[in-house]
């Protein structure tokens, strides 16, 4: 189970790093032109960058606490926060009638839920 949790965590961290980097460094106009980026048309640049920062922090929070053995409970907490982020993303995509992207959000939500459940309940990471 530990291996499955690490694989899921690595995948979610990669998704988070990619999404965060895109939201931080791609101009709003280019984001709005991308499929799935239509939501940025009504969002401020500050809001988009804030989501980007949160996603970058999530990438860090999913991996570093366990690897460095410093506050490893943060992995499960970060995954739980990712669930909330994906709920918000799914709501936005429902409002835009982008049901394929809602399913992507639900997939990420399920992955994050698995990690949170696994690290809170099944195989908690413990600090030494």
UniProtKB/TrEMBL annotation:
Membrane topology: Multi-pass membrane protein
Record keywords, A-Z: Membrane, Transmembrane, Transmembrane helix
GO cellular component: a single term: membrane
Organism the protein comes from: Micromonospora krabiensis
Segments traversing the membrane: 6-26, 47-67, 73-92, 99-122
InterPro entries according to UniProt: DoxX
Subcellular location per the Swiss-Prot or TrEMBL entry: Membrane
Name of the protein: DoxX-like family protein
Top-level taxon of the source organism: Bacteria
